[in-house]
């Protein structure tokens, strides 16, 4: 394949950084939309369909297509982007190792120390209900999609954070 | 690792983007090397040395302090 080179370096390397910028911007926009939507207390029926469906239409192609491609396609990364990628993956691995036990510890702490539930009468019942605001009434594939979304968002945020820190 | 890339580039009045184009890397990579945030791989170090027509050790300095 013929490599497209410009006076500012190979195009694919520049596209990689631009797509990463776009992914961060679109995801931050999505987070803002969720925060504003939740804070406003509006019901779904009160929101015009164009407004309601705009964030997902923008975010889903980025989250489910562009970012996974940015993670997988090493040919789009020069050696510095590869360094940032490795640093980001190492940080994600640490988060993956630490976050689940941390969530467990916090949930049990809230349940036993703050709420002071009656442990003796639980009979195997665990304080899962504390996670209901996040996970209740989710269809199972929905949980996978949200986990995927969180992972790709984490990758983009950490990559851009590492890049920003290096540029200072 | 310290290096003289920024000085050598300035002497030739090249922008970071222009140098990136000559080295087949991104502008971000040139910036990271110049600021010492990234040590280039051996192949890239050789490309830099060839471009500036200098030995590698005259561009990169691996001595402490």
UniProtKB/TrEMBL annotation, chain B:
InterPro entries the UniProt entry points to: Cro/C1-type_HTH, Lambda_DNA-bd_dom_sf
Occurrences of domain HTH cro/C1-type (ranges): 5-59
Signal peptide location: none
Superkingdom of origin: Bacteria
Entry keyword set: DNA-binding
MF terms (GO), sorted A to Z: DNA binding
UniProt-recorded name of the protein: Helix-turn-helix transcriptional regulator
């Amino acid at each position: 394949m013929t490599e497209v080179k410009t006076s500012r370096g190979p195009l694919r390397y520049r596209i990689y950084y631009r797509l990463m910028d776009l992914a961060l911007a679109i995801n931050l926009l999505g987070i803002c939309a969720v925060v504003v939507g939740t804070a406003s207390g509006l019901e779904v029926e009160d929101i015009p369909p164009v407004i309601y469906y705009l964030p997902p239409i923008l975010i889903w192609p980025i989250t489910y297509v562009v970012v996974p491609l940015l993670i997988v396609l090493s040919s789009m990364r020069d050696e510095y982007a590869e360094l940032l990628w490795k640093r980001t993956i190492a940080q994600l691995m640490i988060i993956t190792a630490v976050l689940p036990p941390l969530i467990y510890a916090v949930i049990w702490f809230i349940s036993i120390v703050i709420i002071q539930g009656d442990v003796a009468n639980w009979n195997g019942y665990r304080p899962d209900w504390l996670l209901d605001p996040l996970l209740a009434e989710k269809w199972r594939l929905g949980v996978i999609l949200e986990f995927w979304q969180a992972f790709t968002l984490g990758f983009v945020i950490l990559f851009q954070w590492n890049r920003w820190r290096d540029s200072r | 690792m310290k290096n003289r890339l920024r000085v050598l580039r300035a002497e030739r009045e090249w922008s970071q983007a222009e140098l990136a184009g000559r080295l087949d890397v991104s502008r971000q990579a040139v910036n990271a090397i110049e600021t010492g945030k990234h040590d280039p791989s051996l192949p890239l170090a050789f490309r830099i040395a060839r471009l500036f027509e200098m030995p590698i050790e005259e561009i990169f300095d691996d001595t402490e302090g």
